[in-house]
Every structure is written in structure tokens, then in C-alpha cells.
Amino acid sequence: MISAILLAAGQSQRMKGQNKLLKHYKGKYLINHILNTLVKSKVNNIFLVLGFQNLKVRNIIIKSKKIQCIYNKKFKSGLSSSIQAGLNKISKKNMGFLIVHADMPLISKGIINTLCSVVKNKDKEIFVPVYKKKLGNPLAFKYSMIKSLKKIKGDRGAKKLIKSNKSKVQLVKMKSKSILIDFDQLKDFPSTT
Q1: Over the stretch 9-33, which tens digit does the pLDDT of each residue have?
Q2: Cβ(39)–Cβ(83) under 8 Å?
Q3: Which residues does the UniProt record annotate as the domain MobA-like NTP transferase (predicted)?
């Protein structure tokens, strides 16, 4: 079994008071792009970690039996608190899991499925998508990395863990630069959305 932790608790600080996940992109709420992708992928469970404007986001997301919402009451303390909230739901039944950012609507089902496959079939423990030598997201991990991930702190995510465990890392070449593109600011949203 492979699960996904979908990080959607952030405060959208660069969005001038707007929650980016509630903005429309190509006719849908931003968060529903990646949710649709995950629901249609080989991922078995999606642990959607919410925080900022929790109820508003919860009310607009697509419905699926794969999705379980988690409220991170510590969301203001940074990204790692949301990762921890998601990790607490990952059971030993999982061979591995993905950590996915909700503000990356261009990630395809193919990218998610590729990461699911490498987690199942490769000996390494950390899988990082790469496009033209640039590291991207989402990240994939074997279950064996869960204790190390639970130790991360602040707003840094897993970058430090990856750097300190290079022998456990496998880079996964991708054909799409979508692994590098997130929607963090108003200018990232096309004006015709």
C-alpha cells in the first residue's frame, strides 16, 4: 500500500490575504487539481492535512473514499508540523508514502504513479523527482524513513533529511518541469483563470 500526505495547511503568506487553495485555476479550485490527480492515481489513501481556513477548504474539496482530512492545529509553526500530522496516520501496512504539496496543480497522474512504482520496486529509501538536474516535488519515501521524518522541525520540510542521507536517495528523472512549479503568489495564477 502507498499513501499520500497532501500538505494544505499553509497560510498563503505571499498571496496578499487570500488562500491560494481557494483560488480558481482552469475552472476548479486550486486544491482540487492535485486531489483529482491523487484520487485517479495508484495511491491507496490520501491524508489531506488542513490548517489555515480549514473549514472553507474542507467544504470545497472533491469527495472520495480515498481522502481523509486531518486538522493540524499547529499549522502556524511551519511545514514540518503538517508533515508530522500526516505521518501520524501512516500505518505499518504502507510500503511507502508520498509527501505532496497542494499548490502544485500541474503534477500529473503519471508522475505520481512513477513515484509509487519506484517506492515498491527499488532498494533506496528516499525518491526525489528531478527535471534537468533540478530537484522537485512530490517526494516519496519507504516506510523505513518515517522515524527520521518525524524528527524534522520548523518550516524546512525534508530537504535537510535528504542532504544528510544521500546514500539512501534515488533521483527519479521526469520528463515534465511540473515537479518544479508551485503557485505561491498571485502572479503565478494566469489572469484568465
Answers
A1: 976 555 556 778 888 889 999 999 9
A2: no
A3: 4-165
